Amino acid sequence: MARGRLRRWTVLAIRRLGWSRSPLCRPSDRVEGLLIAATLVAALVAIPVAIGMGRGAYAEGAARAAAQQAAGHWGTARLLESAPGSADPGQDAPNPVTTYARARWQGPNGSWSEGDVPVRAGTDAGSTVRVWVDAAGQVTRPPLTPSQLSDKGVATAITALMGLELGIVVCSLLARWSLDRRRLAAWGQEWERVAPRWSRKYH
């Protein structure tokens, strides 16, 4: 029973792809079948390509994070002014609001620097906050954590896959549109040759 269904499905798929010896099957039908097969293959190939791009983004981010870890360190900055905004974002706020405020911190060579640092909104002047200080003594973004690197790799892979699949679909639709135009033109030419014969036959 199962073999019979599989055979019927196989025959239908072959006919749908234009791989049939039927005299009604035209070259354009075979081209369309090849186009469908090529689209399916390209869609499958896009999956490992996107995964590779995600892994590449993860590896690049991990290397950058390792370099930041080696060159910088966590330090402490003291606020010279109160951070704007409210310290209480409200119950509906999913995360604390981050803003910038003037602060003073010590670099790796012992010198002091001043500048704007990211702090929680509403933090009072004189408070101390943790900041990431690079080798030049400047406050920068801290290295990405392993979970953030994983999220970046997954996001890159998903975005790449969506872009590749969209490009494949668009190219396939354009190719089928062009094929349909040629097919309609061929049908029109054939009808111009056949129509006079039918007219003479029924008159």
From TrEMBL:
<keyword id="KW-1133">Transmembrane helix</keyword>
<keyword id="KW-0812">Transmembrane</keyword>
<feature type="transmembrane region" description="Helical">
    <location>
        <begin position="31"/>
        <end position="51"/>
    </location>
</feature>
<feature type="transmembrane region" description="Helical">
    <location>
        <begin position="154"/>
        <end position="175"/>
    </location>
</feature>
<dbReference type="InterPro" id="IPR039708">
    <property type="entry name" value="MT1774/Rv1733c-like"/>
</dbReference>
<keyword id="KW-0472">Membrane</keyword>
<protein>
    <submittedName>
        <fullName>Uncharacterized protein</fullName>
    </submittedName>
</protein>
